[in-house]
Design brief:
Layout: H1 8-22, H2 30-38, H3 42-49, H4 60-67, H5 71-77, H6 83-92, H7 94-97, H8 103-110, H9 115-133, H10 145-149
Helix pairs in contact: 2-3
Amino acid sequence: MTDGTPTRARRFADIVVPAAERAGYTGHGAKARFARDTGMTESSVSRMWLGNALPEARFYEAIAQVTGLQLGTLLVEGGVLSHEALQSLSETDRTQVGSALTPEEAADRLGLKDEVGRQMFYATYERLKRLQDDPSDHADTDHGGTAAQL
């Protein structure tokens, strides 16, 4: 840009490259390792690290994983999401509003359709909760534990 404002690609690189270096992507072969670990091509990584190009959005999650950066930060800096859209998503995110995934929702997401399997899942969940709340509650461990009792 002619006004001295860094391009989106430059801002993205200014965030990703230091994070990648902190994550151990330094020295000879760093870009090749980063490419391998993210699924990107080495030439794409080079262009991104130089601030000349943004990666395809499909690589953002892998970049977030290997660098330890928040996916939302990458999506905003890469121009995939606006700050407002990210804020809107964050406000409805269960982790932000303190709501937990219910056992029924977990069973649905895991694809448990059989009613017996679902009941076993719920019983296991309840037993694990009790053990977490009271670790001394091991009265039935001599009988094979939770799975054997189901």
